[in-house]
User: Fold Phosphopantetheine-binding protein from Actinokineospora xionganensis.
Amino acid sequence: MATIPDEFQNLLRPHLPFADSGALDAGDELAGLGLDSMSLVALLSDIEDRYDVELPDEIVDEATFATVGSLWSALSPLVGHADPTR
Assistant:
């Protein structure tokens, strides 16, 4: 699986209470790591603040927030990074 940038992992980690201290993998399920509806709202805010972007409504859906990789895949074009899942 593709590597998720450390910067993005560090942004995610505070919102994932069940994540261990190891690297997050693209296939890791966000819900399984503890992301719930309340932490999702906080994560969206942190993403927009950190990367100075506004996430388009069409990508804020269940599929985008299924895994670490699906979220990074949706976000990376907006922040100018290569998509690690392709």
